[in-house]
Design brief:
Length: 471
């Protein structure tokens, strides 16, 4: 045994020396290699694999070997002893708003990284606000997660987030021509995907989908109130917050739709936000109560190609408010003092007394995720950071916990925050697992996340774009 180990160690060192010598150029200098030895790797494709050595060079994983453990290498590589530790792919938050609240924008990159969130998908912000932030985050040597962004919420004739009494992150699309033009403009300005919002009409929705498809832009969407989830499914790559899915799962779904369409096309609409709120108020909880399992199974059968980003930590916030978690005080201490003051105030939406809380939508959201899981609908992990007490980075771990509470295994929760976002963007050949050739985003954990998903917070070290992030 000893001889075998020595032999394989020798083979590996020679192989490593060869690798080091053939591609030793510029910023890919082997001096900056990172070697993580004797670690258990865990990704959604392979599950756990013990006693692995992972070598990172530049922004790539160049070796994943289940062979011996080198105690030293011929280079000055940064060697991390992974004994007793767990290595997972860098995590994603699939639903953030970098520019929603100025108090968070600048501290977000570091906050995400310190919690092991090495990539984010921004699902709504105006281009003039987004572009400078994106430029800073993508600058060479920026200490920042990778970022993919949609630009503004593409809304309809009326706009929910129109800047009146709430942030301006939505834009108007009154007709098909304007919709096509907006999608083209976003593509030209560098948006990675589009986000369709709730007040678009069916023609505008179809035009957006068609234009985005032509331009190879993935599509994230709420289910527009004018449409049914089963109609929207398969036309979009992701759906957010389970929004309006309950309306299609209700036994009286068609009647609800007729009522909605009347109100959506009425002459005297005061504002997009008021319109949307009134429709949610009118139909949401009744639809939840009228859920028809058979009909819902048919709806979900149309969603098997669409990643659902249920944002459970938001939808089910009444069941598990963040400030009731034991690590809340620690996590919030990294936020600005005014945020701490704001967020530690009693919350008007969530009564302190458990018995007074309305838990219907929270419980429905958990059960819907379980239904989706059983129906083969892919699930993605997103938080809506910084909306509703979502601390950048920390809240993703809360989301993973809630996904497991809904019925995902810890490995499925990891898949939701690694493989699924890569699939949404069509970059699963580059990201999402720990394999040779993949980007070098990794999180080293001191405890096994498969034993308890909360162990994704036991972060020993974060590697982002091939560099160890100082904690
Ligand atoms: Zn959002």
């Amino acid at each position: 045994m000893v001889d075998m180990n020595k032999r394989s160690l020798l083979v590996m060192l020679i192989a490593y020396a060869l690798l080091s010598s053939c591609t030793n150029t510029g910023s890919d200098n082997t001096d900056n290699d990172i070697v993580i030895t004797n670690v258990t790797i865990i990704d959604a494709k392979q599950g756990p694999v013990k006693n692995v050595t992972v070598v990172v060079r530049g922004d790539k994983i160049i070796s994943v070997s289940s062979d011996a453990t080198p105690e030293s290498t011929t280079t000055t590589a940064n060697i991390i002893d992974g004994t007793g530790k767990y290595l997972i792919p860098g995590l994603w938050d699939m639903h953030v708003h970098l520019t929603y609240d100025d108090r968070f924008t600048d501290l977000m990159p570091q906050s995400f990284l310190s919690w092991g969130v090495t990539s984010v998908r921004d699902t709504g912000g105006m281009m003039q606000d987004m572009l400078p932030v994106i430029a800073r985050m993508r600058a060479i040597d920026a200490v920042s997660p990778r970022v993919y962004f949609a630009g503004p919420l593409l809304d309809g004739q009326h706009v929910v987030y129109d800047g009146n009494a709430r942030p301006l992150i939505g834009t108007q699309n009154s007709d098909v021509e304007q919709a096509r033009e907006n999608v083209r403009r976003l593509k030209n300005s560098g948006a990675d995907f589009i986000k369709i919002y709730e007040l678009v009409n069916p023609e505008v929705f179809l035009a957006m989908v068609d234009e985005a498809d032509k331009l190879s832009m993935p599509i994230a969407s709420h289910v527009p109130l004018h449409l049914l989830a089963s109609t929207v499914g398969n036309q979009v790559g992701s759906m957010e917050h389970l929004r309006n899915i309950e309306l299609d799962c209700a036994s009286n779904a068609e009647a609800l739709l007729v009522t909605r369409q009347e109100k959506l096309t009425a002459a005297n609409i005061e504002s997009g936000h008021a319109l949307r709120s009134s429709l949610h108020q009118l139909q949401r909880l009744d639809a939840v109560a009228a859920l028809d399992e058979e009909r819902c199974a048919m709806v979900l059968a149309n969603l098997t190609q669409t990643i659902q980003v249920p944002t459970l930590r938001l939808n089910a916030i009444a069941l598990a408010p963040p400030y009731e978690q034991i690590d809340w005080n620690d996590a919030i201490s990294a936020m600005l003092p005014e945020v701490q003051k704001d967020w530690n105030k009693p919350n008007e939406f969530i009564p302190k007394e458990y018995a007074k809380r309305d838990l219907r939508f929270a419980q429905y959201s958990l059960s819907m995720v379980k239904r989706m899981l059983d129906a083969g609908v892919p699930i993605g992990a997103g938080t809506d950071t910084p909306i509703a007490l979502a601390i950048p980075g920390y809240s993703l771990h809360r989301e993973l916990e809630m996904l497991v509470r809904a019925g995902l295994t810890p490995l499925q929760a990891i898949e939701a925050a690694t493989v699924r976002p890569a699939q949404f963007l069509g970059i699963e050949d580059q990201m999402g697992t720990i394999e040779v050739g993949k980007r070098a985003d990794l999180v080293l954990l001191s405890q096994n996340p498969l034993d308890d998903i909360r162990n994704t917070r036991r972060i020993d070290r974060v590697i982002s774009k091939g560099k160890v992030i100082p904690r």
